[in-house]
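Slides due. Your pick:
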Amino acid sequence: MCFGIPMEVKSIEGFTARCEAKGVEREASLFMLQHEEVAVGDYVVVHLGYAINKVTAEEAAAAWEIYDEMLAAEAPGGRA
């Protein structure tokens, strides 16, 4: 199963953004969002190295709440 990961844009150079989520940084191509204005501090959903959607900070936080619950349920001794 693949998920798009909400990440905060930390820097932009051309069509490449350096993004961060939960202390992990990754580069993401902004090519698919070239017709939207994306700035440092914005949140994007990253999937397979591409920023595929711009989201609000609230939407990113809500997604991470769900992801954290899923990870906790999979952990040994987690809820099922």
Summary: The mean pLDDT is 93. The first strand starts at residue 5 and ends at 13.
